[in-house]
Amino acid sequence: MEKIPNLIIENNLRSGIDGDPLYTELKIQNPITGTVEDLGGPIPGVFVQVKDTNRTTMTDENGYYSISASPGEVLVFSYPGYETVEWIVGLDAVIDIEMYESFTYLDEAVIYAGYFTVKDRERTGSIYRVTADEIEKQPVNNVLEALQGRVPGLDIVSTTGLAGGGYTVRIRGQNSIAAGNEPLYIIDGVPITIYSMSSQSVSGAVLPGGNINPLNTLDPSLIESIEVLKDADATAIYGSRGANGVILITTKRERHGNTSLTVDLSTSINKVTKFHDLLNTEQYLQMRKEAFINDGIIEYPSNAYDLNGTWDQNRYTDWQRVIFGNPAYSNNVRLNISGGGAQTRFYLGGNFMKETTVFHKDYNYKRTSILSSFHHSSKNNKFQVGLSATYGVDNNYLPATDITFRAFYLPPNAPTPFTEDGQLNWENSTWNNPFADMESEYRNNSKRLQINSSLSYQLINHLKFSANVGYTYSTLTDIKTNPSSRFNPDWGLTSASSNHFIGDSENDSWIIEPQLDGEVRLGTSKLSYLLGATLQEQAYDQMVILGSGFPTDLLLNNISAADDVIFLNVQKNKYRYIAAYTRLNYNLNSKYLLNLTARRDGSSRFGPGNKFANFGALGAAWIFSNELFLKNIKILSFGKLRASYGTNGNDQIGDYQYLSTYTINNSSYEGNIGLSPTRLFNPNFAWEKNKKAAIALELGFLQDRIKLEAEFYNSISENQLTGMPLPGTTGFTVLNSNLNAKVGNTGWEFNVHSKNIDNKSFVWETSFALTIPKTELLEYQDLETSPYSNRLEIGYPLNILKLYEFSGVNPDTGLFEFKDFNGDGIISPLEDKKFIADLSPIFFGNMTNNIKFKQFSLALSFYFVKKKGLNEFYRFSNAGSASNQPLSVLNNWQQPGDQASYQLFSNSNEAVTAYSNFIESSGVVSDASFLRLRNLSIGYDLPLDGFVKFNIYLQAQNLFLLTKFKGGDPEYPHGIVPPLRKILIGTKIHF
Question: How far apart are CA 366 and CA 475, in angstroms?
């Protein structure tokens, strides 16, 4: 069996048949069946078409197809990543086809860019794609974790190791000083609100910053692909919404073929990866005794319970393992079903997961996600309509406060936390039991519904009308309860001291986007065009209430039973957005590419006269490997040089920031509630503006077995929205205004992919990504008198710390010393905090190896970061106090002349002052670089016959960490639950 490699052979063969009387007599449509396979077996989803007709079908799960065709007609078999096969129909009723992987698959790969699609090799912008296969090999709860380090230019940091928390996400740095820096997230064409709907006063003590990511409700297994849009050419079509980059999420979709069912079951055990090295009981008591000797105190005070015999001096408790060293467990059930024919298809998928915590109580996180989609096309494929819906619910039950930090400070000989009958042990009021904090509880319930409908109609050849309509509704209710049982009973506090916080948030939005797109062919060139508009409205309401004083703790969950109810926050916000956009793309000979994008945005967030602004971008590319003078260079299979420049704005500033606003105060007059002014009117409130440029080189070698992409970017954000100082006589300290401040971001991004081995039984691929970013404050008018004078410095990034410069330990006094910049003999913040600590990553990246040998598969992913961080001393108290310490304090000063790294143990005023300055000095800044085996995945496909496919897999996360950092895990701030090591086993069954 041979495929027809080109149209010349096809036409010659056809002309021979056309003249045959038998062919003329038999020119009727007959049923043709067969299977399509590659070297590994049947290929499902192969598109089969009778050439130059509307007769199409797709192969089912077993590679089987059926179609009607006449002798002499040509069947076209196509599938991404494989060479297209054309076969002339003869008299055979069964035609089996074997397809081969394409060495020029770069031509076939199609990138989704939001409003349009583009071949990967022909894109002029910076777009990176992550597939479902890459996501599914990682045992993550939120898809953002799967992107960490994998996408050049994308920096993702989790705020907590607890499930259901938040993330800080930056694409090519931080553009704005005070406005939002989060990228735009779009799920199936519908933008989602990414800011947390939780209130800091309710959730902030356990979820840092009250940060709860809305993507938590979407199970990663329901995602088909993610595209990250980074430069101006790729993002300009989104206008101001894409100022900080765009993350496009496409969920799983319906497929042709027989109805198929997939069941995926997994369970995991999770544990903390790294603990602090702290003093044991003997070392701790010696430290305490030495401090009293240094302070000239012979008799231990009555409240020195750890030393005076009140507590057992032989007891040792490793509080880290007691408080957050328990194993957490996770169970996950996933189910999906799909099927349909050539015209109508469907998909239905769902997930339920439950994950416990490393704390000792039965805290847990639960999530349910459902995805459904439907697609129908007319027989001639001119009309197409699709409908998809996602619904997610998650519930989080946690302590009201993350008590991880308590484990570091507790003396190792402190009392046991519980009595023999399981009650809190207060040890005769000699300590504050850390487990009392767990009497206070935090619960949240989040729901998110998204419905998206899309339709398109081919008006004429090369002209199509389409429309996308989306609706999103999300709610979050979070509750924090603080019962009186959290207090020592000897204090005599009753439920009158109990309180209840409740936050209710609701967000609903709709979007309508009609669009016309088409193309004109001019000889060997092609002009594609697109015209569209966006209409969007979003309403956000939030109410936070505090109830204090209850008749009994049994009524604590009923806030109406409180003696005093205060409204801490009441918001009703509405945001409207309108835009018109166009895109022109010119392609000459598949060598020279030009892309022009323009957009006019209107936002309700700005003052009169400033609501509208124009943005645009120009992208160009030269595919020089298609030039004749390079055709003889066999080693070079692909080469492209591309560049882009454009502008966009930023309206991530919140609503009503330009208006005079008032808030409810807690005072009343003659029974009437009062209002207090909170903001002054500013009619000149306008857009921040971003100017972005980039240039990149893409190369492919040895038939694209090795691909390399290197890119340099440079952006400047100006007209910054920050606070302008006001005289105190106005009653306000600042006025939100546009100032003459500029922020610059530059950097290099590298991405390498290689197919090291590729044959029938063994495949080995390697990917490497590296980002070298730099953010810099270029200008800021009157910075010295601004609210940011202590936070920012010209020529430095935006997340710096201004600290004292640590000089070491004075060998004569044994106290920490610092550089006195003005020489006045006094260490003071304003004059002497001149050391600038840059905590931004110097570089970060990822290296992944994927290996497949027969039925076995292996994936290894390493994540690395070069940066500085705040070390173990940053959150500890002075050594000598009744608080445990890092092991490194044992290198302390003891007598004059000692060269030590830590000062003498003492609780004197001088020592305490020196230590207070120390934790605000360069002494707490250390190298926090690390290399981590982020993900490991091992799979095995059981060789079963029939319709069932059975896969067993083992996955692991955070297995290995290499770092010199002293102070717990270098990824996470001190005092919160660090990232967990996860070991997961699962099985996937496909029917």
Answer: 16
What tokens does 811 get?
A: 């060998």
Those residues with Cβ within 8 angstroms of residue 672's Cβ, 6 or more apart along the chain or in another chain:
none
Tokens 């319930």 map to which residue? 445
Cα 783 vs. chain centroid, distance in angstroms? 32
- Residue 19: the pLDDT is 43
Q: How far is CA 639 from the centre of its chain?
A: 31
The tokens 């060269």 sit on which residue? 899
At residue 503, the pLDDT reads: 95
Task: Give bridge partners of residue 71 from the DSSP assignment.
Answer: none
Q: Which pair of structure tokens corresponds to residue 626?
A: 């298609």
What does the angle CA 709 – CA 713 – CA 714 come to, to the nearest 5 degrees? Answer: 175
Side-chain-facing half-sphere of 145: CA atoms under 13 Å? 28
CB of 207 closer than 8 Å to CB of 162: yes
- Domains in the chain, CATH or no CATH each: 7-102 (2.60.40.1120), 108-257 (2.170.130.10)
217 SS3 class: helix
Task: Report the pLDDT value the prediction gives residue 104, as an integer from 0 to 100.
Answer: 45
3-class DSSP assignment, residue 888: helix
- In sequence order, what DSSP letters do the residues of 939-987 get, joined into one string? EEEE---SS-EEEEEEEEEEEEEEE--SSS-TTS-TTS--PEEEEEEEE
Number of Cβ within 10 Å of residue 522's Cβ equals: 9
The one-letter amino acid code at 430 reads T
Question: For residue 106, what pLDDT is reported?
Answer: 44
Taking CA atoms, 251 is separated from 111, 221, 225, in Å, by: 15, 9, 7
Which DSSP string corresponds to 833-877?
--EEEE-S-SEEEEEEEEEEETTEEEEEEEEEEE-EEE-TTTT--
For the CA atoms of 879, 882, 883, 886, the dihedral, rounded to the nearest 10 degrees, stands at 40
Q: Which residues contact 64 (CB under 8 A, 6 or more apart)?
A: 33, 34, 35, 42
Q: What is the full DSSP assignment across 812-832?
A: TT--EEE--TT-SS---HHHH
- Beta strands, E only, 651-733: 661-669, 672-679, 688-701, 706-718, 720-725
Q: What is the pLDDT of residue 101?
A: 65
* Cα distances (angstroms) measured from residue 653 to each of 200, 253, 361, 686, 816: 18, 35, 40, 10, 43
What pLDDT, on a 0 to 100 scale, did the predictor assign at position 107?
47
- The answer to whether the CB of 154 falls within 8 A of the CB of 769 is no
| Dihedral angle over CA of 817, 820, 825, 828, nearest 10 | -90
Question: Please, are residues 99 and 42 in contact by the beta-carbon 8 Å criterion?
Answer: no
Q: In the 8-state DSSP scheme, what is residue 623? A: -
Token pair for residue 868?
Answer: 């500085």
pLDDT of residue 943: 82
Nearest of 161, 164, 140 to residue 150 by alpha carbon: 140
The Cα 41–Cα 443 span in angstroms is 50
Residue 104 and residue 619: Cα distance in Å, rounded? 24
Q: What's the confidence (pLDDT) of residue 677? A: 78
DSSP-based three-state secondary structure for 563 = coil
The segments of the chain whose pLDDT lies below 70 read: 1-27, 39-40, 80-81, 101-108, 256-257, 664, 666-668, 671, 723-735, 946
Could you give the CA distance from residue 98 to residue 785 in angstroms, rounded to a whole number? 73
What pLDDT does 102 receive? 63
How far is Cα 875 from Cα 404, in angstroms, rounded to an integer?
A: 12
| Cα 944 from Cα 921, distance rounded (Å) | 64
Q: Which pLDDT score is estimated for 352?
A: 97
Look at residue 496 in the predicted model and tell me its pLDDT.
95
Q: What is the pLDDT of residue 8?
A: 29
- Compute the chain's Rg from CA coordinates: 32
pLDDT of residue 205: 87
Virtual CA dihedral for 850, 854, 855, 856, nearest 10 degrees?
-40
The predicted model scores a pTM of 0.87
Q: Is the dihedral of CA 216, 221, 225, 230 positive or negative?
A: positive
Q: Which stretches of 362-423 are DSSP H helices?
A: 406-409
